[in-house]
Design goal:
Elements: H1 16-41, H2 59-62, E1 64-71, E2 82-90, E3 96-103, E4 109-118, E5 126-130, E6 144-151, E7 157-161, E8 168-172, H3 179-191, E9 200-201
Antiparallel strand pairs: 1-2, 1-8, 1-9, 2-3, 3-4, 4-5, 5-6, 6-7, 7-8
Length: 204
């Protein structure tokens, strides 16, 4: 046998790297297709659905004093230690006077007087609230969103937030709320995209 020749059935060792390279490309392509298909089928972790409000609010029934049961902590209530409440009074021009008050850690009352106006019809659950002076009311930035997103049929409790879910309040006509009602509201808030870890119960 010629030493430079080889049997016909001998493996072509020089082709092995090329074959492996082709197989690798095929495997990579298949893997990419599998990943694309998986991503298409997997649920997208997008932003929560747009926040919905209650259908309507009977403004005269809404007036009066509400006690804060829980909230997302915020900078403008940092001095409030207990007894946080809001009193709404309907004015002759259709606007609503808002009086927020609470006790500091020294037991002293502190107050903030503001105004609210509805966005939409007379039963709209969407309002704008400001606590800046009246002469600044023409500036849009001084008005904050106040959306009623859940409301007891008898107007004994209410949940208030705004479109971006950055603020949240649970309010009640009484300083304390039944535990079962509170837990039910927490469950509904979770389903609507709120972070329950951020909710801070308020001291009566």
């Amino acid at each position: 046998m010629n030493p430079t020749s080889r049997p016909m059935n001998a493996p072509r060792r020089w082709a092995t790297p090329a074959v492996l390279s082709a197989l690798a490309r095929m495997a990579g392509g298949l893997l990419a297709l599998v990943l694309i298909a998986f991503m298409a089928m997997a649920p997208a972790h997008a932003e929560p659905a747009p926040l919905l409000t209650v259908p309507s609010v009977d403004v005269p029934r809404y007036m009066g004093t509400w006690h804060e049961i829980a909230k997302y902590p915020n900078w403008f209530q940092r001095k409030c230690a207990s007894s946080t409440q809001a009193t709404y009074t309907l004015q002759a021009d259709g606007r609503v006077q808002v009086l927020n008050r609470c006790k500091t850690d020294k037991g002293e009352w502190t107050e903030a007087l503001g105004a609210a106006r509805q966005i939409g019809g007379p039963n709209s659950p969407r309002l704008k609230v400001r606590f800046a002076p009246e002469w600044l009311s023409f500036i849009p930035l001084v008005w904050g969103d106040y959306w009623v997103i859940d409301l007891d049929l008898d107007y004994q409790w209410v949940v208030v937030s705004e479109p971006r879910r950055e603020y949240l309040w649970i309010l009640s006509r009484t300083p304390q709320m039944p535990a079962a009602t509170y837990q039910d509201l927490l469950g509904k808030l979770h389903d609507r995209g709120f972070d329950l870890k951020r909710i801070e119960p308020s001291r009566p």
